[in-house]
């Protein structure tokens, strides 16, 4: 996204009589720039961000502009995907939504019409999907894609050995590392992790991989690739550990414990940054977690203790990763 921001800001500076102001972002831990144009009735401010950082970036910009002691209009250009869902903010901002892959305008508030015209005249004509106006499709999806490939590859091997896609043979699962207390007690502790990469059937893996595809990129964007991997592994182990103690007779497989851990890490992030993000984010996340736990309790043969163990592991690991080991935690 860096190149498209620079290009459009340069257009505003060189052709539209804007000037730049900068302020320190407590979230990004670096200086952030905003374009400003003096008008008779106040200042017209332009911020460029993406849909992942929309709430936090607009809030920080809004709070900074208030310190300038001038009437203002905050206009946020959001680089997004085609499926952007328009939501209202708790503070007054105007939005111009741009498809970051194609360059077309998805939505535009009335105050952003001048920006829309500038975009279409100066930028969109030269927009090409081959230009590096944003990061690739795999931005914040690299580890998620890798985990999905690994899970699918292992599933296909077990399906081949079982002779079925829909009902993987229990013996095959045990041979490949399912959580089974009797074998763990004999020293095969690695089963506490390997079971998270096994699935009992096509529907099982499809549901888990879809959830991972949705949640994973958010974790990678917030925590980074390494911490994401740590959260995933730790949550897998804590999920299996609680299942070991609370469901000693079960044979357990599946990535759902790790996925609950990722949801727990999102919950930890939302709690730490509760003063910077909308309350709806926290409440919506809590609703998703509760609903998924309830679904698990309503269906037989679901290892709910693994879900709870993964959730707890994700909350703790996410909190430690984001808060305590943050180099600038004093500025949070």
Automatic annotation (TrEMBL):
GO terms for biological process: proteolysis. Its main location: membrane. Its EC number is 3.4.21.105. Keywords: Hydrolase, Membrane, Protease, Transmembrane, Transmembrane helix. GO terms for cellular component: membrane. The keyword Oxidoreductase does not apply. It is found in: Membrane. Belongs to the peptidase S54 family. This is Rhomboid protease GluP. The chain crosses the membrane at residues 142-166, 189-213, 225-245, 251-272, 281-299, 305-325. Pfam families: Rhomboid. It comes from Clostridium saccharoperbutylacetonicum N1-4(HMT). Residues 186-322 form the Peptidase S54 rhomboid domain. GO terms for molecular function: serine-type endopeptidase activity. It is a multi-pass membrane protein.
């Amino acid at each position: 996204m860096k190149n498209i921001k620079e290009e459009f800001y340069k257009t505003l500076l060189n052709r539209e009589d804007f000037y730049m102001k900068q302020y320190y972002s407590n979230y990004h831990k670096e200086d952030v720039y905003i374009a400003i144009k003096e008008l008779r009735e106040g200042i017209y401010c332009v911020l460029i961000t993406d849909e992942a950082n929309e709430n936090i970036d607009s809030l920080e910009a809004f709070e900074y502009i208030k310190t300038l002691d001038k009437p203002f209009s905050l206009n946020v250009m959001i680089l997004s995907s085609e499926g952007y869902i328009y939501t209202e903010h708790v503070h007054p901002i105007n939005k111009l939504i741009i498809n970051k892959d194609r360059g077309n305008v998805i939505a535009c508030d009335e105050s952003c019409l001048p920006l829309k015209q500038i975009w279409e005249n100066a930028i969109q004509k030269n927009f090409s999907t081959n230009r590096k106006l944003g990061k690739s499709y795999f931005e914040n999806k690299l580890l998620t894609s890798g985990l999905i490939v690994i899970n699918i590859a292992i599933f296909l091997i077990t399906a081949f050995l079982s002779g079925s896609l829909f009902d993987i043979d229990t013996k095959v699962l045990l041979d490949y590392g399912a959580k089974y207390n009797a074998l763990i007690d004999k020293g095969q502790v690695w089963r506490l992790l390997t079971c998270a990469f096994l699935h009992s059937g096509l529907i099982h893996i499809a549901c888990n991989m879809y959830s991972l595809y949705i949640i994973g990129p958010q974790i990678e964007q917030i925590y980074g690739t390494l911490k994401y991997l740590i959260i995933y592994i730790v949550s897998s182990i804590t999920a299996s550990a609680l299942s070991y103690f609370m469901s000693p007779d079960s044979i357990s497989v599946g990535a759902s414990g790790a996925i609950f851990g990722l949801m727990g890490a999102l919950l930890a992030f939302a709690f730490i940054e509760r003063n910077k993000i909308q309350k709806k984010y926290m409440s919506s996340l809590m609703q998703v977690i509760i609903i998924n736990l309830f679904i698990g309790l309503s269906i037989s043969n679901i290892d709910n203790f693994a879900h709870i163990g993964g959730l707890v592991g994700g909350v703790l690991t996410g909190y430690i990763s984001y808060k305590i080991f943050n180099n600038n935690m004093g500025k949070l």
